[in-house]
Amino acid sequence: MKIGILGAGKIGPKLAQDALTIPGVSIGAVGSRSLERAEKMALELGADQAFGSYESLLEEADVDLIYVATPHTSHAELTIAGLDRGIPVLCEKAFAMNFAEAEKMVKKARENQVFLMEAMWSRFMPSLLKAKEWLDNGFIGDLCHIKADFGFRPNYDPNSRLFDLKKGGGSLLDIGLYPVFLALFLSGKPESIDAQAILGKTGVDEELSMLFKYADHLASLQSSFRSVTPCKAQIIGSEGTINIHSRWHHSKKITLSYNDDRPDLIWESDAPWTGYRYEVLHVKECLETGKKESPLWSLDNSLEFMQTLDRIREKINLNYS
Ligand SMILES: NC(=O)c1ccc[n+]([C@@H]2O[C@H](COP(=O)([O-])OP(=O)(O)OC[C@H]3O[C@@H](n4cnc5c(N)ncnc54)[C@H](OP(=O)(O)O)[C@@H]3O)[C@@H](O)[C@H]2O)c1
Fold first, then answer.
1. What is the Cβ-side half-sphere exposure of residue 156, based on CA atoms within 13 angstroms?
2. Fewer CB within 10 Å: N-end or C-end of the chain?
């Protein structure tokens, strides 16, 4: 599987390093708004081709998959451009700026019968799959509460994608979506959502707290650009708690602590990769078996995810314009 990366930024090479550990996967091309940057990254990743525009990569590259690794604002346009040329697409999260954009992307993929998946890599992390298995098998009794946080302090640059409102800045679309993902992954769509945010100078959410209510349990979720949070997740049940160790969204260790004196149950991985490998492996399997969307992180999952993010933004009066 030859991957064509759009955007010579931070995430492209990270995913590529993990992807290159998979037999049969290579980086076919890098596309950048600057030929110099494309050539530099192509050299680093052993890519065959470098292009000085996204358009030229889409038109000319010999690739089996486009990986959209640009800021959120361009995801819809570049994804649709790839799908229109019949090329399968893996699009970074946040999948789109809003539900309406996501709907257009999904519609295009389904109409054109071309594979599309949101790069929600945590969905494929063995640690999270194990935690869900323990929960589903009743190891912690009845689910009472899900807690998850993700906070770091990025350098303040009002023009960067993290702080510029027009670029979808703020913690929600960058990192807050991970705790939201966990709640959706474990419990599905919440009955109701509450959220509060502290907006910064540029109007983006810099501190965000979300509370999801389900029929018989709650989820308390936090993201922050103001504080370095523990980046841990807890799945709390009536008989014990599953702790997903830091950083929980690509954790290599989970521990189940029982309320009684049973010894802890521990699951650990010594895999050398960051964790992007799992989603790329899944995409490869999907393409090899002719799937048009992932059975594990479907386009309906992405739509529901995007809709939930919109609902949160409504609660905190956050508009990207
Ligand atoms: N899955 C993960 O773990 C993870 C981690 C980080 C980020 N992400 C997601 O991946 C996407 C890219 O994140 P990143 O951290 O790699 O971002 P970044 O380094 O700021 O930008 C990535 C690249 O996008 C291109 N680009 C296109 N239009 C741009 C514009 N108007 N302004 C700035 N750059 C533009 C640039 O490449 P050229 O100049 O070469 O064209 C830039 O280097 C985001 O949607 C982010 O949420 C995912």
1. 7
2. C
The domain defined by 2-120+288-296 carries CATH number 3.40.50.2300? no
Give the pairing of strands 2-6 and 65-68.
parallel
Note whether 100 and 76 are within 8 A (CB).
no
What percent of the chain has a predicted confidence (pLDDT) above 90?
Answer: 100
Nearest to 303 by CA among 84, 106, 119, 114: 106
Tokens (6 digits) for 140: 């912690």
- How many angstroms does the Cα of residue 12 sit away from the middle of ligand 1? 8
Whose CA is closest to atom 42 on ligand 1?
A: 9
3-state SS class at 287: helix
Question: What pLDDT, on the 0 to 100 scale, is given for residue 188?
Answer: 98
Range 126-274 classified under CATH 3.30.360.10:
yes
Q: Alpha-carbon distance 315 to 4, whole Å?
A: 38
| CA 53-95-305 angle, 5° bins | 175
pLDDT in tens, 276-318: 999 999 999 999 999 999 999 999 999 999 999 999 999 999 9
Residue 119 has pLDDT above 90, yes or no: yes
172 token code pair: 């929600």
Tokens of 312: 């949160």
Rounded distance from Cα 240 to ligand 1 centre (Å): 40
The structure's pTM equals 0.98
Quote the longest CA-to-CA distance of the chain.
63
Q: How far is the CA of 141 from the centre of ligand 1 (A)?
A: 41
Enumerate residues lining ligand 1, CB below 6 A.
7-11, 32-34, 37, 69-72, 74, 92-94, 119, 121, 161, 174
* Contacting residues for 13 by C-beta, under 8 A, at least 6 apart: 41, 44, 45
